[in-house]
């Protein structure tokens, strides 16, 4: 379905003439206060495995287009889109405005973006194939595996001077400040009130995807012209991949909305914080490696710095950080929704059966990219699953539908919610 490369990306959509309620044009202010629900989309980090949630988004957007017309875009339906690392990149692509003030990318364009640009972001050099593990080990010690020049140039070309406060729907993107040793959460809401938290979208994308050992950290600064005090006028950022703090940003997104409610933001108020029956949350994973017990305590007890950073083609330390972060968030969110009797309002789609190159974040060969597309399409056919707290495996839920059917149900709810807000606007 998506095995061919597109030589050019669709970056502008002609605005439709509004002849009936199903045609999407530039959206009015359709906030949750005009409807019944708060709608949240969350996308994990995972390098080139961003293709997998990309396939889910293509399917969801196609169902919305069946209901509301070909100009429907995901940004028209979600009150908040949150992303970390590659998920932050996708989030920005879905919400950044084009010259017609419509989303820069349709969901289907995201797959083409990954297929076309991943081999340039993560170049597979002949030396890496010939020398293999020795070169990877040397790279893990000597510096980042990739120089990051291509992704910096590409995102700057795509979003130019667009800033966070200009996104078409609210977004939240995570990063981690290596100088302050604390997470940094960038959001559209905060960008509109605090100039120091209103970066260029290009700086945001580069920062959230700066995975340690793979891509270099990113430095930038933001000046607030309204402040005269020279010491307070400029804020400095020294950022790496937000995955070290929140590879799965679902809880970050829900907490952010709850904070806005507590601050009586009129967009959300008077919904109560963490009132899960009023939340509709779609959380998309980027896939994890099949549980093969390739590490154990006896083995790890002998590792030093190099062993934790690199072992047999993997990075045990980074893998542990990212997978633990994602699973803990999923477990907590799932239990929260179940305990409040609204589990149908939360949908987590994840594949934990990846093997070989498909489990990597950077093996961007044509064969592996196409394999990730296949895995994404197969994931649509699998039944809705939940993580088993004891084993860590995702297990199909008895009596549940397929992921495709669950996304179709979500599309109907999203479409109905948007129509309600239009009628109340």
TrEMBL record:
<feature type="short sequence motif" description="GXGXXG">
    <location>
        <begin position="45"/>
        <end position="50"/>
    </location>
</feature>
<feature type="active site" description="Proton acceptor">
    <location>
        <position position="241"/>
    </location>
</feature>
<feature type="short sequence motif" description="GXSXG">
    <location>
        <begin position="83"/>
        <end position="87"/>
    </location>
</feature>
<dbReference type="GO" id="GO:0004620">
    <property type="term" value="F:phospholipase activity"/>
</dbReference>
<keyword id="KW-0611">Plant defense</keyword>
<feature type="domain" description="PNPLA">
    <location>
        <begin position="41"/>
        <end position="254"/>
    </location>
</feature>
<dbReference type="InterPro" id="IPR002641">
    <property type="entry name" value="PNPLA_dom"/>
</dbReference>
<protein>
    <recommendedName>
        <fullName>Patatin</fullName>
        <ecNumber>3.1.1.-</ecNumber>
    </recommendedName>
</protein>
<keyword id="KW-0378">Hydrolase</keyword>
<dbReference type="GO" id="GO:0047372">
    <property type="term" value="F:monoacylglycerol lipase activity"/>
</dbReference>
<feature type="active site" description="Nucleophile">
    <location>
        <position position="85"/>
    </location>
</feature>
<keyword id="KW-0442">Lipid degradation</keyword>
<dbReference type="InterPro" id="IPR016035">
    <property type="entry name" value="Acyl_Trfase/lysoPLipase"/>
</dbReference>
<comment type="function">
    <text>Lipolytic acyl hydrolase (LAH).</text>
</comment>
<dbReference type="GO" id="GO:0006952">
    <property type="term" value="P:defense response"/>
</dbReference>
<dbReference type="Pfam" id="PF01734">
    <property type="entry name" value="Patatin"/>
</dbReference>
<keyword id="KW-0443">Lipid metabolism</keyword>
<comment type="similarity">
    <text>Belongs to the patatin family.</text>
</comment>
<feature type="short sequence motif" description="DGA/G">
    <location>
        <begin position="241"/>
        <end position="243"/>
    </location>
</feature>
<dbReference type="GO" id="GO:0016042">
    <property type="term" value="P:lipid catabolic process"/>
</dbReference>
